[in-house]
Amino acid sequence: MTPAHPALAQTDPELAALVAAEEQLQADTLRLIPSENYVSTAVLEATGTVLTNKYSEGYPGKRYYEGQQNIDPIETLAADRANALFGTEHANVQPYSGSPANLAAYLAFAEPGDTVMGMSLPHGGHLTHGWSVSATGKWFRGVQYKVRREDGRVDFDEVRDLALAERPKIILCGGTAIPRTIDFAAFGEIAREVGAVLVADVAHIAGLIAGGAHPSPVPHADVITTTTHKTLRGPRGAMILTRAEHARAIDRAVFPGLQGGPHNHTTAAIAVALHEAAQPSFREYAAAVVANAKALAAQLAERGFELVSGGTDNHLILVDLTGREVPGKVAAKALDRAGLVVNYNTVPYDPRKPFDPSGIRLGTPSLTSRGLGTEQMAQVAEWIDRGVAAAKAGGAEEDVALKGIRGEVAELMASYPAPGLPVG
Where found in the cell (predicted)? Predict the structure, then answer.
């Protein structure tokens, strides 16, 4: 059999073997990490083009290197497609990832020591939203809002009171473990009242927004940052979307403020992903992601799992395993052995430490990309239930149960080939 990557196999067989093993692993496991997805073959091809050979510091028409005859149109195409898809006035498609994109917003609108406000990391926020161990929490004075203990939702009266008391330069909304619809209008109203710049970090839900399955922050936020993978199904990159009045500040923050030459092969792949996201089929995909998440959440709740906020409005489910008497890390590692790839995660007001928390985080973007629908979510929930029970039991009983689930998962995955994979 001809290898999928013949040049790589010939030049570096050790690395080629690891790539092939990962391709097989992605093909025959059920990937439930909400920040992961499968990109199309077209996105993969764009990522692997000769565009990686070219340096392009600056912006289209204003470069510091010659030979940009093809690069400038590629970047312009990606930016134009982003603006058309999200209904924005300016798009910067150069940030290397989501964290630098957020840093660019700080650089554009705040000075070191200024107060910034974001959702607490243990409550679903992101490290770069002013959390203490991040550069954003060391260089700026970070204050955090939380969710209510009783229902796991944001209390906007508390957010407003905190904003009025602290007067932040920047308010960030969005995060990494938020299973509910983000009320951008409410955040926007508070930001305007205190004179803050509202930054909407939509990295997790950009694809849902593009597909009409989540409200858009565009009418309410001054700046929108996002990764281009996750629900958007693009390469690992990022974008910043802004109103025209903020375009110069953001562009200067990205380059020369934070980085040099953009990764042109990634820019091209972003353009491909945005083209794909503009197709009618992507709206169907986004709706299916949410439908699957709701169905999976309902099936887990029926089996007695405690869900943070009681369920989900989007692609993400946060499960508190305290009642199951199984730590999140133990459960995640057991489920991984069963072919159910999740991540352990802190839950709001978690008494356990972040590296050994009480919860697991699940999502439906990847399985939806493979074509699984709501009719399969009962089976997925049943596997999770069995896997967590096996983790609690431990010993030989655990090994037998997880091995059994692993075989069942692989059998189902064989019927749903993953996009972009040469195996399946």
Answer: Cytoplasm
C-alpha to C-alpha distance for 368 and 193, rounded to whole angstroms: 40
C-alpha dihedral (205, 207, 212, 215), degrees to nearest 10: 20
Tell me which of 236, 283, 337, 392 is the catalytic residue: 236
Q: Known binder of ligand: residue 261? A: no
CA separation for the pair 138, 130 (Å, rounded):
8
Residues of the chain with pLDDT under 50: none
Residue 57 is among the residues annotated as catalytic for this protein: yes
Cα–Cα separations (whole angstroms), residue 287 to 208, 307, 414 = 8, 21, 24
Q: What is the C-alpha to C-alpha distance for residues 69 and 226, in angstroms, rounded to an integer? A: 28
277 vs 286: CA distance, rounded Å: 9
Q: Which of 23, 28, 201, 251 is catalytic?
A: 201
307 is in an annotated binding site: no
CA 283 to mean position of chain CA atoms:
18
Q: How far apart are CA 338 and CA 341, in angstroms?
A: 8
| Residue 31 pLDDT | 98
**What's residue 423's pLDDT?**
76
Domains of the chain: 44-277 (3.40.640.10), 280-413 (3.90.1150.10)
The three state secondary structure string of 188-241 is HHHHHHHCCEEEEECCCCHHHHHCCCCCCCCCCCCEEEEECCHHHCCCCCEEEE
The token pair that represents 193 in the structure block: 């009242």
State yes or no: is 398 an active-site residue.
Answer: no
Is 126 annotated in a binding site? The answer is yes
3 state DSSP class of 141:
strand
Cα distances (Å, whole numbers) of residue 205 to 84, 151, 245, 318? 17, 21, 25, 15
* pLDDT tens readout for residues 165-203: 999 999 999 999 999 999 999 999 999 999 999 999 999
pLDDT of residue 304: 98
125 annotated ligand binder: yes
Instruction: Extract the tokens encoding 255.
Output: 């380059």
Q: Is the pTM of this model over 0.90?
A: yes
- Active-site annotation holds for 201: yes
What is the C-alpha separation between 191 and 165, in angstroms, rounded? 13
